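Batch manifest, entry 17 of 40.
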Amino acid sequence: MNPIRIPTLTLLAALAPAAPLAQASTAWAERSEVLATGQDVHLYGLSTKGDDDTKVRCFDVTVSLTIGSDGVPAGTAAVSASACPKVKPGEFVIGNYTELASGQACSLAASPHDGRTELDLSCDSGTNHFLYTWYTGPIKGSPIQEQLVNAGLDKLPDHDAYSWGRVVLSEYNYDGCTYVGSLFGAREVNGRITMSIYKDDNQLDCTHEYQKTAP
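Output type: structure tokens
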């Protein structure tokens, strides 16, 4: 029996690796700050990426639910989005703050540290004390760079929007998240500090918010 001969070009085409599939657009809602009020769900700092696009974008998004006359949520919702405000992670206002979840009183102090600014947020409920310390500037060159890189926090698409630090003192773990040594990112917008706590990896464990109070 004569062997079947396949043209060389046809054979090469068949053996060539398939072209990679286009990457679908996506978002990382788990990395945003989520606030739900009434029929609205707000996602602040939502990171997104388009098809075949390596650029990560940031949006503040509001999802407004539609509730029927029978009280059942409808199958549609209105979505509005605007670009995240340009915020420099080094901009923190020194003074008094209140943790929004617990009402705990806190104070923010600053001091120079090797060309950066060290921020220390001290919170006191009367019986329990907490101290969070972070440094302005990027992860590269941070006093705790090795820990941040080992945790993979430099791989987060929006890591440069935060200043990074760790929990120095936590007298008790009141939220199942805040341990001594836990790594976190901090940023301040309009007098509110958002602290995203990651512990020792780059999976977000919890978020704390602190509102500036007088003076």
